[in-house]
Amino acid sequence: MKNGVNGVALGVFIFFFLAVTVVGFLAARWRKAENEHSLDEWGLGGRSFGTWVTWFLLGGDLYTAYTFVAVPAAIYAAGAAGFFAVPYTILVYPLIFTFLPRLWSVSHRHGYVTTSDFVRGRFGSKGLSLAVAVTGILATMPYIALQLVGIQAVLDVMGVGGGENTNWFVKDLPLLIAFGVLAAYTYSSGLRAPALIAFVKDTLIYIVIAVAIIYIPIKLGGFDEIFTKASHALAQTSPLTGKPRGALVPPQAGQWTYATLALGSALALFMYPHSVTATLSSRSREVIRRNTTILPLYSLMLGLLALLGFMATAAGVKVQNGQLAIPQLFENMFPDWFAGVAFAAIGIGALVPAAIMSIAAANLFTRNIYKEFLKPDATAQQETRVSKTVSLLVKVGALVFVLTMDKTVAINFQLLGGIWILQTFPALVGGLFTRWFHRWALLAGWAVGMAYGTLAAYGVASPTQKHFGGSAKEIPGIGEIGYIGLTAFVLNVVVTVVLTLVLKAVKAPEGVDETKPEDYTADAGDPGVQVELPPATAGASH
Amino acid sequence: MSNQSDVTGDALVTPVRVVIALCLVAPFVAMLWVGSYAKPDPAFIGIPFFYWYQMLWVLISTALTMTAYKLWQRDQRARAGKKGGASE
């Protein structure tokens, strides 16, 4: 790694950063509604986004800076195993095609802002709704922290992250500034800020990937050369495990892991609060269905990006911390000014999801903890104020997390977060299609899934870590190595089904369902559906 | 996750809906059957089969989801027409 600050790259980076800051603050005026103090306005952008805004917003939201850094980093470290991100994002879209429009419709009818709102309305259970809300917040926090890790990686490579022996304040100052700015415009503009900034982010990312995927292979002598070199490098024995580092193609033993990781992650993605927030901000049911057909463009980009991991190997990039592999590759390969553009793309790529995630977590807290348990008679204005404040606290929490703890802690928690959030699937998606499941059974299933997932992940050791060393473990009864989250999910479903049968047999109270079958298929413009919804709180007078 | 599980009480399984379900299920079969594509050859411009095949599936699954979307739209319109406005 070069020493000293890369001035040109840093200059370009700062230019883009300032530009998006201006955009972020101006966003408050974009498509402003009269009722600006409702949570629908601040937290869902007025539920007004069309196909393209939703596409950029969801893309900016799901494909985070951490994704851009971590996916190629995984390929760089272990080869084929890291490529599961591609089948994972392929499977997401046919999956959400089936249930997301229903979620949109029922939320639109009843003014739901979060998934917990829906679970509460569907099953009439405060406990289940709280479980979903807490899981959502817990899973989102480390995810925000990881966005910071992404920015840090870029700052490090540009030489402004400081070395090991720099004063901590100087070292972390750039990160503090970046986050201060992010917090300020999220606070003032709500979801509109990331929606607008996502345009800048995605444009930059697409340009960088397009250039990288053509320019770097030419410099390295073509894909043949890249994969030959990479396969040699992967075949070398790792000093930590005594086995080869990885392979170009997953061996027989790794195929279950590959498939279960892809499936489990695909099931989990739209359980995350930030995905749902971006979904509910869209204008109509059709916007969502249409988006499932155009969002895969991002998957293609992700696949190309993953190949950069091999290019880093072939280019002889040597980094201690795998997260730095791709930023370092850019620094080595690109002229300084374009490296600056690439770094800006990653940096801004962190800001967009961090903003949406903090808004989503704040909405969950406000709607399903504050209003539900602390202040049931909160007005729309109070809700919005609490949400804004909580979005700040969430970000400060993430910042403290990253600055005080080792990076691996954030990564461990994010791994756990994925396992946890998947356990809300039966209540949410099950609930969208049927009322057959019993609310207490769902709660019990959730608890079993959470407990198993956490314990199993705790027990996974890696050469560098005693606990949380990975997300795959032997599946009980099958004997293959599979994704813990998916195993926990299967247990969850089994417990839920068995207990539902038992509870129905003893006629346990079912709870009140405030939704009707036609709510799940309503679209904007249908008879009886208002195009403009009343503010969230008006719909929440139940 | 199939469309047949909709809880509306209509006659739900029609040939068109079976096709929609197949379009949506196909990527799962293709991607989860890792053994079918975990091999390096044939390579394409130097990229091992394992990688280009999965990237190709991004395009295939997009086409399939798009087909499902179009068929679904048509199905809904036909039903709405029959029932006089109220969609499924």
Compose a concise summary of this entry.
The complex is a heterodimer of chains A (542) and B (88). By secondary structure, chain A is mainly α.
Topology of this protein?
The complex is a heterodimer of chains A (542) and B (88).
Chain A: H1 7-26, H2 39-44, H3 51-62, H4 65-78, H5 85-110, H6 115-123, H7 126-158, H8 168-189, H9 192-220, H10 222-235, H11 255-269, H12 273-280, H13 285-294, H14 296-314, H15 325-333, H16 336-374, H17 380-404, H18 407-422, H19 425-433, H20 439-458, E1 472-474, E2 481-483, H21 484-505, H22 536-539
Antiparallel strand pairs in A: 1-2
Helix pairs in contact in A: 1-8, 1-9, 1-16, 3-9, 3-12, 3-13, 3-16, 4-7, 4-14, 4-16, 5-11, 5-13, 5-14, 6-7, 6-19, 7-16, 7-17, 7-18, 8-16, 8-17, 9-10, 9-14, 9-16, 10-14, 11-18, 12-16, 14-15, 15-16, 16-17, 18-21, 20-21
Chain B: H1 15-32, H2 49-83
Helix pairs in contact in B: 1-2
What this model shows, in words?
- The complex is a heterodimer of chains A (542) and B (88).
- In chain A, helix 4 (65-78) packs across helix 7 (126-158), helix 5 packs antiparallel against helix 13 and helix 12 (273-280) packs across helix 16 (336-374).
- Chain A has a two-stranded antiparallel ribbon.
- Mean pLDDT of chain A is 82; it is low at 530-542.
- Chain A has a single domain (50-539), classed as Sodium/glucose cotransporter, CATH 1.20.1730.
- Chain A has helices at 7-26, 39-44, 51-62, 65-78, 85-110, 115-123, 126-158, 168-189, 192-220, 222-235, 255-269, 273-280, 285-294, 296-314, 325-333, 336-374, 380-404, 407-422, 425-433, 439-458, 484-505, 536-539; strands at residues 472-474, 481-483.
- With 542 residues, chain A is mainly alpha-helical.
- Chain A has 22 helices and two strands.
- With 88 residues, chain B is mainly α.
- Chain B has a domain at 31-74.
- The longest helix of chain B is centred in the last third of the chain and has 35 residues, at 49-83.
- Chain B is elongated and about 55 Å long.
- Classes of the chains: A mainly alpha (542), B mainly alpha (88).
- The interface between A and B is large, with 50 and 45 residues.
